[in-house]
Write a structure and sequence with these properties.
Blueprint (H helix, E strand, L loop, with lengths): L1 H16 L5 H17 L2 H8 L4 H21 L5 H12 L4 H5 L13 H23 L2 H4 L8 H4 L5 H13 L5 H21 L9
């Protein structure tokens, strides 16, 4: 009994001495499962394998436009991704009138807190890292080193890593506090869920 109580106290002491997980760690754990599912999304997988055709690729970008346009407008954010997707879709032959009529998700909360917005950015800033890898797999479809049609996945280009590190630095400076961290994590998990749901049926017209 005495040894058991001592072991419990020692275990509690070690736990007390262990550093609390960083907010970045919390975000990574909370979104790990859905991130893994999206990694295997059929559209992204087809780009990765070099098997996506022009019609399906255009359909995927249309779907992405329907996510990123309201995301950047509602939260709000600098509309980099909206602009990249707009140029890509026009280069791929989408008429500006048709572009303006594309469906858009209405799931983003209006007047979200700054903490929620920071968490939501975890989704789009993190996906940019994988986007650069996908951009390199589009040479067979668009042409080697062709920019037209590939701006969205190319993103910030060589600066993508620096942009991600700047975002993580912002995350690291979030003041401690359970409610604050909860809001940031909620922004990330909810935005991932919106993204996953929005991508369903992306290729219905081209299956």
């Amino acid at each position: 009994m005495t040894e058991s109580r001592a072991a419990t106290r020692n275990g509690a002491s070690r736990c007390a001495d262990s550093p609390a997980p960083s907010l970045h760690d919390q975000l990574r754990v909370a979104t790990g499962a859905i991130h893994e599912r999206l990694h295997h999304h059929s559209g992204f997988a087809a780009i990765q394998s070099g098997t996506i055709g022009k019609d399906a690729y255009t359909a995927l970008l249309c779907r992405l436009y329907g996510f990123h346009h309201p995301f950047e407008l509602t939260l709000p954010q600098v509309p980099d991704r909206t602009n990249w997707l707009t140029r890509d879709l026009i280069d791929l032959g989408v008429d500006p009138t048709a572009l303006a009529a594309l469906p858009r998700t209405a799931a983003f909360p209006v007047d979200a807190s700054a903490e929620y917005q920071l968490g939501a950015r975890y989704v789009v800033e993190g996906s940019a890292l994988g986007g650069r890898g996908l951009a390199r797999q589009l040479d067979g479809l668009l042409g080697i080193n062709v920019t037209a049609g590939c701006r969205f996945f190319a993103g910030h280009g060589a600066e993508t890593g620096a942009v991600w590190r700047a975002y993580l630095d912002h995350v690291s400076r979030v003041p401690p506090g359970a409610s604050t961290r909860t809001a940031v994590v909620a922004g990330a998990t909810r935005t991932f869920a919106i993204f996953e749901q929005w991508l369903e049926g992306w290729n219905d017209r081209h299956d």
